[in-house]
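The freezer alarm interrupted the setup, so I double-checked each line after restarting. Inputs confirmed:
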Amino acid sequence: MKAQRVIVMAKKDLKRLVREPASLFMLLLFPIILTAAFALAFGGIGASGQQNFSIGVVNIETTSAHPEWATRFIDNLTHTEGITVLDYTDNATGQADLLQGNLDAFIVIPIGFGDSCQSYWSSPFNGSTWTNTTIGLYVDSGSLIATSVIPPLVRQVVLITIFGNNALSLDIPVQVGSPALVAASTLSQWDFMAPGIFAFASMWIIMTVAQSMSADRDGGLLKRMATTPLSSSEYIISQVASNMTVAVLQVLLIFGTSYLIGYRPATDAAGIVFAFSIVLLFSLVSVGFGLITATLSKSPDVATGLSFIFIMPQMFLGTFIPLSGATQVAAAFVPSSYVTNALTTLFLRGAPVTTLSLWIDLLVIAVVGMAAVLLGVVLFGKNRRK
Amino acid sequence: MIRNLRTYPKAELRKSEQPAITISNLTKRFGTITAVDGLNLEVGWGEIFGLLGPNGAGKTTTVNILSTLLAPDEGHALVGGHDVVKEPKKVWDIIGLCPQQPAFYQFLTGRENIELFGQLHSMPKQLLKERTDFLLKKIGLEEDASRRAGQYSGGMVRRVSTIMALIHDPKVALLDEPTVAMDPVSRRAVWEFIRELRSQDKCVILTTHYMEEAAELCDRVGIIDQGKLIDLGPPKELVEKYGVVNLEDVFVQRTGRKLREVV
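Predicted 3D structure, all chains:
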């Protein structure tokens, strides 16, 4: 085997990528657009990681002897970072806006709110004398983030209203929710989806490999090159080399795009290196599947269709789509699920690279990758001259 | 002008005293169809040999066997003394195939296509550049060499395809209808080019539908019909033998078909 032949063939494939708009879009622009679109749609990204909630407030306590408590509550809510307060004059209008998705939450300050706050300070250590009231809180159930984040935020504002900014340091009978829960609830849907995006972008290599090889065969180039000293293994290795180069670019682009729009995976430099490694190995799987698809296809068009046999199961069972029950079991047979699982462990759970499950995932991908490429080589060798 | 940058000395070519191509009882079947039927042939060094015949006669199948793309069912073929089945790697080193359907990368320029095939034959970089420049000029493509081949006309594609086959200076050139769709000027340029191969003692196997091309270029022609070699000889001798005006008349007389039926 001659390295020079592998290099010139790999260079030729990279020229195809740069010069054919469809290839360029599929392999480089598509991951950027996909990442940006998903991040913006599911992550609320674009505000430096800070969520902003629109909360409507109606104060129905019009006859209280202590109206200043309601005013103070609204002021504190207004000054809370990440919250935009909208005043309403009646309950019905606020509820309607919440239903229409114009609000993330709606708060009703009840009659007796001022008296209730005042009763605490009248007898701080005698709960039996307090006047109890309940703030009405309605949250958009369609927003996973709003339902998680807004209730503890409102409870915090109530405490600050009654006790001031040092509320958390006071020895009071009211307990503040666990900070861990608050931290967890700030994760967006994008944080759960991001690991799957890396696998999702890489699996399209299957289609490009299948298309380019079918086009080479359709155009008579495979036959023509079969009369030169270029061996089957040199041809395949050049395909692997060029597509792994593309995979590196894809990962860099996805990382870069994600980072620019605020995504910060919970891992360190070693974790990033591990992530690169497993995605690169996954590209080997994709090249192998692409080779197999190409040998089964009679034309580039057929290759495009057949490549979905490998892409669709991996997309639905091994990327960002939640799994449970039977789909969870089926995912064990899908290579992309191991990539997504490893990246989730790194990026979301913040596990160190020494975690055993990560290395098991890596091993599975490596074995499947080599097996797929070897099978592809065998099939390619048999079909090269046809 | 750079000429004959890498040629094989005649002494080296002839030292084995073997014919450039030896075909013995060659047979190839596709299902129930016998494409090549017991073909026997010898072609020498420094000879341009034309394979003529109607569509489906077995010309391209023969070329494909000689270029190792197909394995014969019976008989054997030697190229430069190397068996096409047992020693394909040695055959690849000495042949240059210009296929019937030009195969090239549309996204590469003409020059890049040519250089790619030179690199596949491990040509030294400087020699490859010099030879590419020389051949592009020779065949009238130097001004268009930097354009993508996908933008080329049919004739330009044919010319590039011919150079791709010959860039590594092969001893045996297998040219399967190399001048189809070429304008008369380009065709003449390719003819001149093929003649030079003969002067370098190369062996050229040429399949063509153009009888005037065969008459103009070929030292000998073999007329194949239904896989069998039905006549063989220099064009002039065949014309005299059958007492006709030209090679086209020989073709019609021997195959029973007019030329326009087969083109």
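Quick read of the result. Confidence is low (pLDDT under 50) at residues 1-15 of chain B.
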